[in-house]
Design goal:
The protein is α+β, with helices and mostly antiparallel strands. Helix content is 22%, strand content 39%. The model has no long low-confidence stretch (mean pLDDT 91).
């Protein structure tokens, strides 16, 4: 599909949005809108087999995610969003790279509930921050398996349910290997299936 190829080409080399200029962001938004018009699965939540799995972030406008790169001596590695439709869970995982042996992981676990056929409300429940080696991080799937076994991770593993952290996510495009979503803070997310 021409529009999908154009979007992937325009976001290539933008380091998930960190290197995008204002002109780049505007061109990317136009390319996203063009692809959204051709969504092969307009009832995204009914396509649970497509949603299920681990997704790697290709591009975002989220200041929260892009802000993870502001710490000196550390850089954002891969960022994943893993969806487990059977238990209505979303896991956001950011790999933080830096000084050898001090690579870290920042993860937020949430539950989701459908609002429409394309939108879910998201309630954030748990945050985990730690050194990859200390928590034995190997991959998103392996890490989620440990989380689902209710394992505790040092040094920072805490509940955020009491803070009523909520949001929503609208899935505006979904195919076999690409997903586009829009969040409650006006952010756009382009992800590829792992």
């Amino acid at each position: 599909m021409k529009e999908k190829t154009e979007l992937l080409q325009i976001i290539a080399g933008k380091n998930r949005g960190l290197l995008a200029t204002e002109a780049d962001r505007l061109a990317i938004l136009v390319a996203i809108e063009n692809l959204e018009k051709l969504n092969p699965n307009p009832l995204a939540l009914a396509a649970s087999s497509l949603l299920e799995g681990d997704w790697r972030l290709l591009y975002t406008t989220s200041k929260g995610l892009l802000g993870l790169d502001r710490f000196p001596a550390f850089k954002i590695g891969q960022i994943y969003q893993s969806i487990r439709t059977k238990n209505s869970k979303i896991y956001n995982i950011a790999e933080i790279l830096g000084i050898p042996y001090l690579e870290a992981i920042v993860s937020v676990c949430a539950t989701f509930s459908p609002v429409t056929e394309t939108r879910v409300d998201v309630k954030f429940e748990r945050s985990i921050i730690g050194l990859q080696k200390l928590i034995n991080y190997q991959s998103p799937s392996q890490f989620i398996d440990l989380i689902e076994q209710e394992k505790s991770f040092p040094p920072l593993d805490f509940s955020i349910a009491n803070r009523e952290q909520r949001g929503w996510l609208e899935i505006t495009y979904l195919d076999q290997d690409l997903r586009i979503g829009r969040g409650n803070e006006g952010s756009v997310f382009v992800l590829t299936k792992c």
